[in-house]
Amino acid sequence: MHHYTHRIGQQNYYLWRRWELAKVLEVNHLTKIYGDGDNKVKALDDVSFSIERGQVVLIVGGSGSGKSTLLNMIGLLDSPTNGEIFIDEINTTTLNDNQISSFRNKKLGFIFQFSNLLADLSVLENILLPIQIAGTQSTEKEARDLLKAVGLEDQIQKRANKISGGQAQRVAIARGLINKPSIVLADEPTGNLDSVTSQLIVDLMKSMAKKLNQTFVIVTHDRQHFGDVDKVITIKDGKAFQDEEHSTMEITV
Ligand code: ADP
Ligand code: MG
């Protein structure tokens, strides 16, 4: 702190600090190489970007470009070959395996293409599961409120295998949000839905982002359904290109 107050003054230091804290994700020179020798695949090649709290960020690009690899790195599901990932100013690349699991359970929410609900549990029980796993302070009341917010208040006691695909994705969104994570990561969340349902799910994620100041990082082929977003990161051959000004023009197939 001395450094900065000396150079920029107390008032500016606090402004700087607030800006700093708003940065929820920072990816620095991230590289991922799978395999070795002739089988070597450079899935990510020196990727750097940062994301601020509350932003909705899309990751787009062709099949095999490295989108899921990037999302898996940010989700701490796999470790990079080189580079660093800071989440809430914590350098996650310095954490050990136990710390990573606990950090992941508390700080990250996940939404997948297939909602991955436990079929034999009720909708409510599916939402309560991440609370039990992470040991967070979230309550059943908050789970019920979230289910209401995603429009499922009348389905709370239904078994997860008795609801539609769109409803299951709503449950998955509520489940991803229950621990109040720093970032919700979604990999093709509308990849298994028809166009009308996709639009509803996209609108729901965007409205939850706004309502809760919740950061979302979303891999998608559904660029057109998202309309305005804060940032679009296009991955091509493992390299990342940022497009903020023309984000609504770009359409990926
Ligand atoms: P996308 O999600 O954009 O379709 P991926 O991130 O899944 O792309 O894959 C990027 C590249 O890395 C591809 O060439 C893919 O074959 C390769 N790849 C992904 N996962 C693995 C793995 N576990 N082992 C080896 N190669 C992989
Ligand atoms: Mg993928």
How would you characterize the overall build of this protein?
With 253 residues, the chain is α/β, with parallel strands linked by helices. It has a domain at 53-80 and 104-243: Rossmann fold. The chain has 9 helices and 10 strands. A 6-stranded mixed sheet has the order 6-7-8-3-9-10, with helices on both faces. A 4-stranded antiparallel sheet has the order 2-1-4-5. Helix 5 packs parallel to helix 7 (165-177) and helix 6 (140-149) packs across helix 7 (165-177). The protein starts with a helix and ends in a 10-residue tail after the last strand. Mean pLDDT is 91; it is low at 245-253.
Overview in brief:
This protein is 38% helix and 25% strand. The protein has 253 residues and is of the alpha/beta class. The strands form 2 sheets. It has a 6-stranded mixed β-sheet, sandwiched between helices. A 4-stranded antiparallel β-sheet has the order 2-1-4-5.
For this entry, give a set of tags.
single chain, 253 residues, alpha/beta, four-stranded antiparallel β-sheet, 9 helices, 25% strand, globular, binds adenosine-5'-diphosphate, binds magnesium ion
By CATH, the architecture of the domain at 53-80 and 104-243 is named 3-Layer(aba) Sandwich
Approximately how much beta-strand content do the residues carry?
A: 15-25%
Bound molecules: adenosine-5'-diphosphate, magnesium ion
Basic shape:
globular
Specify the structural class.
Answer: alpha/beta
Major β-sheet, in short? Answer: 6 strands, mixed
Radius of gyration: 19 Å
The CATH superfamily of the domain at 53-80 and 104-243 is known as P-loop containing nucleotide triphosphate hydrolases
